[in-house]
User: Fold these one by one.
Assistant:
Number 1:
Amino acid sequence: MLDLAAHFSAFLKPGPNGPPRLHFAAHSHHPWPDATRAAHMQAWDNAARLIDGKWEPILAHKWQELAKVIAGLLRLPDPSSLCFAPNTHEFATRILSAMPIGRPVRVLTTDAEFHSFSRQIARLEEEGLAQVTRIAAEPARDCLPKLAEAAARGFDLIWVSEVFFSSGAALEGFEDLARAAGEAALVIDGYHAFMARPVDLSAVAGRAFYLAGGYKYAMGGEGCCFLHCPPGWLPRPRDTGWYAAFGALGAAQSGVPYAEDGRRFMGATFDPSGLYRLHAALNWAASVKASPAVIHAHAHALQARFVAGLDGTGLAPARLVVPVTDPARGNFLTFALPDAEAWQARLEAANIITDRRGDRLRFGFGIYQREADVDALLQRMRGL
């Protein structure tokens, strides 16, 4: 088993009072490795040293270096298809702004998408600006076939998660949906999959958008999300930032020019420190051979240990939305509990950090945890 806790010393430092914090919410906010601190300070130092000139190393070097790393992890053929933004909601609104006008946008999605998209599309639906068809995300094994079947009816946009935030269930094999999507823009939300499990986009890179970011399993923190933009799809979003034509800013402009690669989805001025941190986190992971496959195997081993030791804790494996016997799952476990709110409160009082979505209590597992941490978690839960 991996033992990388020492690389997270700042985030795992014991508090001044009470029992040591047991952090089991990697799916919600992953601790950052210590290597990200120097990267964060480098962003500050470059700003102080270069002032306006700081954007040259950011856009000409850091952006490209990080894009190469991410493209390699996702098996994308060309790093230039990637674009960065502070959050995925910015990408969602930009994609929506590229939809046809003059009628409600026709959207096919699931009933378990993250709030960045689900809240936004529900608001447009209220105003009659979107017609939304939602496919049940559970049981997960039926979701992709049902989406592919529904896609034949014709849509402008298809939006689906790779790993559902509400359950941890993972969808595998998007090729059939890509073939069935027709003229629709296909978007895969990979936030709970990127750096949590192996992701291979090579078969759909020319057809599907893919978005994720550093806040969760990529360990780089907030403020740095990315979008893979398939060539030729949605070339001119109406919600445009001035960076979307950054290469042409010095020349006289006619009309509204756009970059031809992923930068066509760029916004405007942003805090670049997230780029530095995410680059450092991914480079650190590579240096300790913590590939997505290794991270995924480590998390699943810890999950199995946790579930095997639940006797006497008050939690039952039967309450799991996705059992540990199902390999098609992400790196967190979700328990469906009528008293989930009370459960979370009791755990927090014991300095056990989890999180909750409605009646679902989630435990996240990451490479900063060891078998001893799981054993300590179980022991503390038995004492509640």
Number 2:
Amino acid sequence: MLAPMEDVTDPSFRLICREQGAAMVYTEFVSAEALVRNINSTTRKLAIDDRERPVAIQIYGRDPDAMVEAARMVEQAQPDILDINFGCPVKKVAAKGAGAGMLRDPEKMLAITEAVVQAVNIPVTVKTRLGWDCENKIITSLAPRLQDCGIKALTIHGRTRSQMYTGDADWTLIGEVKADPRMEIPVIGNGDIKTPEQAKAAFDTYGVDGVMIGRASFGAPWIFREVSEYLATGRIPEISLQEKFSLLRRQIEESISRIDEYRGILHIRRHLASTPLFKGIPNFRETRIRLLRVETEKELLELLLEVEGLLASMQA
């Protein structure tokens, strides 16, 4: 599954990932308070394309009434699933008691979950972390209680909030939750899945029902094709350099078309900065800086063509 990520999982990227083999995709997270106030930039996040399905819209917030009202608004957008974010670790979210901040108030988390489940008729799921910090890893006791609220699946990121995205994800507690005989709903694991082999190991070792991929998809939506084929056949497909660059160009063009040239290029820079295509190119620093500084589509596509030619000559 493609993990929900702010400023990353826009409609175009979600669709590309589905085409590349992602079993399911998630929107960027949506602020319940902003949605209730009809903030345009937030309501736009509810737009989904039938070709993306199955697709989940994810909401976050700390106010129970706002979460319930936002959930009802999300239901009108007709996603396949409504997901509640109890895992975002960034300070501006967690410090205000939303996202992973809810891990400091599990009773409120449970109350919000139950209220949202009762407010809508579509399946509700939850995404969270192991706990607030290493001294408070509460997920094994929390998971059955979340299930009792009526959620249909639980995604667990194998880090605490205090870890943010540092260190290694700990999958052992995810495995413990899955092995708990009380758990009847699907358990999805998230954290540090970067290769098809790691995805298979997560299934084999921890028995999870699904694996969620986040940062490893930046600039590499083809990872879902690699993972799905590896799980099915034991072989990693060979995807040509030309096809990979074609996908990057499509991301650039669709990002610009969806927003505008300047902001569309800004949006896509995270993918260009992280794509594994550029790893191993000698003396690439100057070219990378140019890629991240260009401000027109023409310049960016010309530079990308130059890099593709360089890599092709290296592989020849």
